[in-house]
């Protein structure tokens, strides 16, 4: 029974941290403020996470697990490369929209002043996403016998830059400009790259 309670407390701490990232933009989150929000002592926080960096890592693991589990499902279930790319981008943007606080981790804003390895891990996450898109585009030629109007690495990079830009706009707007806003119209323009 204690393991369940520990897992629940860990989840509660991470949810509180994500909530504070959403409601306190531009402010550094201290363990004292986080402990107060959770309703425990700082010592209790440290029983579940040895450091604040580990708490951020917990949120990054949540991001990675959520996105890549769903991306793998898209890749396994959808065979059309164009639809795969569309679904992957919409997934990332929809995830950001549903998790505003976590979005501040995706753009690195919440990690300023934190350990460099956290920012490096987010950079690696974007590299993995770009590599996944590049792979989908490479498979298009093999699977569908269709070529692209530009090199798949260039197109994959443009798609990731678009996604990153939409996430940053969401944060800059105080979470009012939704990342998925006008996605279908914008995707229609991107489709021209696939012709």
Automatic annotation (TrEMBL):
One of its GO terms (biological process) is negative regulation of division septum assembly. Keywords: Cell cycle, Cell division, Coiled coil, Cytoplasm, DNA-binding. Signal peptide: none annotated. Residues 30-49 bind DNA. One of its GO terms (cellular component) is cytoplasm. Residues 7-67 form the HTH tetR-type domain. Belongs to the nucleoid occlusion factor SlmA family. This is Nucleoid occlusion factor SlmA. It comes from Alteromonas hispanica.
